[in-house]
Amino acid sequence: MNFTTSFLRMLGDLAFRNLFSHWRKNLIVGSIMCFGTILVVMGTALLDSIETSMSRSIISSFGGHLQVYAKDARDDLALFGEAMMGASDIGELPRFDKIRNRLEKEPEIKAVVPMGMSRAAMSTGNEMDRLLDALRQHVKTNRPQKVKKQASKIRSVLELLENELERKKLLSAVPEKIANQLSLVRQAQAEGFWEKLIANPEPHITFLESKIAPISPDDRLIYLKYLGTDLNRFAKSFDRFEIVRGDMVPSGERGFLINQKVYDKWLKNKIAREFDEIKNEMEEEEVTIAEDAKLAARVRRMRRLYRVVTYQLDPDDSDALRLKLLNFLAEEQGDINQLFQSFLTINDKNFSARYEFFYKEVAPLIKLYRIAIGEYLTTRTYTKSGYVKSVRTKVYGTFRFKGLEASDIAGQTSLVDLMTFRELYGAISDETRDEVKAIQKEIGIEDVSRSSAEDALFGASTGLEEIVEADDPEVSSDIEIKLSATLRQSNDSIKFTQDDIDQGLALNAAVLLEDPSSLERMLKRVSEIEKEENLGVQAVSWRKASGIVGQFIVLVRVVLYVIISIIFLVALVIINNSMIMATMERVKEIGTIRAIGAQRKFVLLMFLMETMALGLVAGTLGAGIGAGFVKVLGNVGLPATSEQMVFLFSGPRLFPTVELHHLFFASIVILLVSIISTLYPALIATKVEPVVAMQAGE
Amino acid sequence: MTCVVSIESVSKDYPLGKLVVPALKSVDLTIEAGEFTTIAGPSGSGKTTLLNLIGCVDVPTSGSVTVVGQKTEKLNDTELTKLRLHELGFIFQSFNLIPVLTMFQNVEFPLLLQGSLSTKERRSRVEGIVERVGLTEYMKHRPNELSGGQRQRVAIARALVTKPSIVLADEPTANLDSGTGQQIIELMKEINQREQTTFIFSTHDHRVIEQARRQVYLEDGEVSGDRNQNKPEVQ
Fold first, then answer.
1. Residue B99 and residue B172: Cα distance in Å, rounded?
2. 3-state class of A223 per DSSP?
3. Whose C-alpha in A480, A633, B1, B188 is 20 to 30 A from the C-alpha of A280?
4. Mutate to test the interface with A, among B51, B67, B98, B107 (most CBs of A within 10 A)
5. Which residues in chain B have their CB less than 8 angstroms from residue A594's CB?
6. Mean pLDDT to the nearest integer, A186-195
7. pLDDT reading at A116 higher than 80
8. Helix, strand, coil shares, percent, chain B, to 5
């Protein structure tokens, strides 16, 4: 052994000395190797950290550790959307409680949360609808002062509508249609209409609701993703969940919890949203309106939106705001529209003052969000059997996932109670069926087929505004109103029990484990249970269940490995070339060594040792620098610059950690690169004949 | 006396383009243990070729070369290398020291290749031989820190450190001034006499030739004269 150590020491000595004697070349090669190692260490450490944090995001927002869903599902479960964005058919779990009871027997399983995800068109009614709703309320509660005020508000909106229709008429391809609408609007503005309305409100309000409201703008549908779940269990199981505004839906009641991100992004007043986003861009990205063309375009767009604010103002508020704006803008004259437009003419200098003014003076006068907490939301969806279903559900509040506030991925899905979900999904509860029967009895229809019952119940005429619109003489409006009233009531006041939630349908279920590291084992365990007891479920890990988001990290990993491969391929070629040159330069030395009595394999070893020594130095240095960088990042945190990154980082900053296996992996890679790149030159070196040592000349 | 080198009707041809150049033409030669022999002749006479064949770094085109009882044409590369390592020592015209190693390491190198001595044995062996060539104080120097004569002494030490049967020297004084060359020859002679190591060296320097006890003359690839001071001259 003594010999071997001396021998290796001599070889090492030879290698190191040779490195120094060709230091220029080796500096370049070493730098490439060093850079490659830094990249390997940092890349793998960062990716692993991102993967860990992303798994936290997924597990703690909607995913849970495992997801179970129907065994006979046609498509794969994709919680965060899939590449094709199509609606996928993941089958259904008809009796959630059976699955839950069985799975929760396993000691490692902490909780099983029922779920069902779907998309729906949501509407809040339009501006006119809301104004009319309030008017009706004031009429009902008999408050003439308020009725008057509301009436004048509506009239000012009508005026704007008339102006717009006149303009539209000139441009429209179907001017007759517009003319027809225009005459309706003028009818509502005619002398005496409002006096008649106050005297006899019902038919006049109905007229406005049925004829005018559909013409008035801003009746956009918003398509939203929602997750039906056992809300209490959801809140308990997903510890990042927290209510931002309003309250949690009370146990046993139906209700909507809107994702705060959706609330701010889609439901906030457009001007307010633009203000928020411009502020955000100016602060986060440090751009100025003067320099950034995109931001400037945004400002111009906002200016054109002035009506989403001025429309909403009632005359008194409008006058008050006009005076404030005159003062604020130091103008002499101008109506509210002109003034507000010039208020919205924003530049870098006046932005912060106007932002402040907007939230202080304007925001309290308008409806800042299209749906206020406590209002009802009409969700329309295609049920499984293909008919349109419409349900009004109270919005109890908004929620977010702590740390993931900025993420769109965690912020795209709202929550609804499971009972409402089932109704929208098209599963008829026993209760609803009983009610349908009762109604049928009451109105004298003895024998109604299931499909006609569905038509009657869930057809196009469930929303109140649509009922008024309906003018089909075949259908008695009396029945419809009754049906709809019953439905609204069933949404509102009929409570349900935990058993109702459990003993029914879910599409999938999140499984939370006591110990996350038992994931693989529990995945196997669930399939074992399935095999033995035939529950009709399959289990997937959070990664698979998350759809494209979970795959994203795999993609990034592939990209990183490709980059690393390219760098090392370049290193390989450079090292290979320079080693061939070194061989050529040292032919005489190699010949001498061979003549003295060194075998070919000694020469091979000598060359390998040389690059391995280089690899060792460069690799150690690179690993050190890489680990150092990661350590620094781990202390400072890597900021998430986009909302996607917030989700990946599971918060606004990523604190990556480097582990021993990252360094180990890097050293293996660098060692392999060293060996492979030297094989060919070393082989050439072994072919050098000892006779060259004898050739004269220095 | 035992015969350490035996060359029987050896020819060696080198291809030169389409031509074949004969470097040696049917040479017969035997060298006995303890000789101090020079192979002399003008350049191109085949001195180096003959030395290469004896040194087992080349094999003949025809004929047979026996070195320390082994027929070299029957050995493969590994066995030839082994033979060189254990039985032969080389002294080169341009010293051929390994530039990145110290003088001590250069001398120690063949011992490490042999791998049969302990560190302590190696150290004392190297120190002994270095002392013999008179360079004890330069142990830690690199070759480029030594003069030409010193370098050749190191080369001699390296050639002798394994106690080889034969030491081959190809024009050992060609790159040295005459005074230094003389000292090197003196050193080789002294070692030859004391250790009975066989020395075979090529040269075309007349002063050097005269100092050898046996002079083998080569001309156009043939032995043209062999003057052995121990034996009557054969022409």
1. 19
2. strand
3. A633
4. B98
5. 57, 81
6. 82
7. yes
8. 40, 30, 30
Closest among A255, A164, A265, A156 to A217, alpha carbons compared: A164
pLDDT band for position A405 (50/70/90)? confident
Residue B132's pLDDT band (cuts 50, 70, 90): confident
CB-based contact B100 A18, cutoff 8 Å: yes
When mean pLDDT is compared across A188-202, A347-361, B70-84, the lowest value belongs to A188-202
Contacts of A349 (CB under 8 A, 6+ apart): none
Distance from CA of A620 to the nearest CA of B (A): 24
User: Does the beta carbon of A604 lie under 8 angstroms from any beta carbon of chain B?
Assistant: no
Does residue B235 belong to any structural domain of this protein? no
**Residue B202, burial from CB neighbour count under 10 angstroms (0-12, 13-18, 19+):** buried
From the candidates B112, B141, B168, which should be mutated to test the interface with A, based on the most A CB atoms within 10 A? B112
Report the percent of chain A where pLDDT is more than 70. Answer: 85
What is the domain extent for residue B210? Answer: 3-228
Q: Has residue B35 been placed in a domain? A: yes
A367/A369 Cα distance (integer angstroms): 6
Does B234 fall in a domain?
Answer: no
Which pLDDT score, from 0 to 100, does residue A24 have?
A: 79
Composition of chain A by helix, strand, coil, percent to 5: 60, 10, 25
> Are A31 and A627 spatial neighbours (Cβ–Cβ below 8 Å)?
no
The number of angstroms, rounded, from the C-alpha of A577 to the middle of its chain's C-alpha atoms is 50
- B110 contacts A13? CB cut-off 8 A: no
Q: Is A282 strand, coil or helix? A: helix
* Residue A622 pLDDT grade (very low, low, confident, very high; cuts 50, 70, 90): very high
What confidence category does residue B11 fall into, taking pLDDT thresholds of 50, 70 and 90? very high
pLDDT digits (tens, 9 = 90+) for A645-683: 888 888 888 888 888 998 988 988 888 988 898 899 999
For residue range A407-445, what is the model confidence (pLDDT) as tens digits? 877 888 899 999 888 888 875 555 555 665 666 566 554
Average pLDDT for A481-495: 48
Alpha-carbon span B33 to B196, nearest angstrom = 7
Q: Do A694 and B170 touch (CB under 8 A)?
A: yes
Rounded to a whole number of angstroms, the distance from the CA of A652 to the nearest CA of chain B is 55
**Cβ(A371)–Cβ(A246) under 8 Å?**
no
Residues A310 and A336: their CA atoms lie apart, in Å, by 7
Domain count, chain B: 1
Looking at the predicted structure, is the pLDDT value of residue A259 above 60?
yes
CATH number at B198 reads: 3.40.50.300
| A629 contacts: CB under 8 Å, gap ≥ 6 | A38, A42
Give residue A140's pLDDT.
83
Query: What tens digit of pLDDT does each residue of A457-486 get?
Result: 444 433 333 333 333 434 334 444 444 444
Measured between beta carbons, the chain A residues lying within 8 angstroms of B118 are 2-3
Biggest distance spanned by C-alpha atoms of chain A = 126
Closest residue by Cα to residue B101 from A211, A424, A138, A589: A589
Count Cα neighbours of A601 within 13 Å in the Cβ-side half-sphere: 3
CA–CA dist B45, B39 (Å, integer):
10
Contact A567, A669 (CB under 8 A): no
Give a yes or no: residue B37 inside a domain. Answer: yes
First to last CA, chain A: 37
Domain ranges of chain A: 2-57+550-692, 126-218
Q: What are the tens digits of pLDDT across the range A572-588?
A: 898 888 888 888 888 98
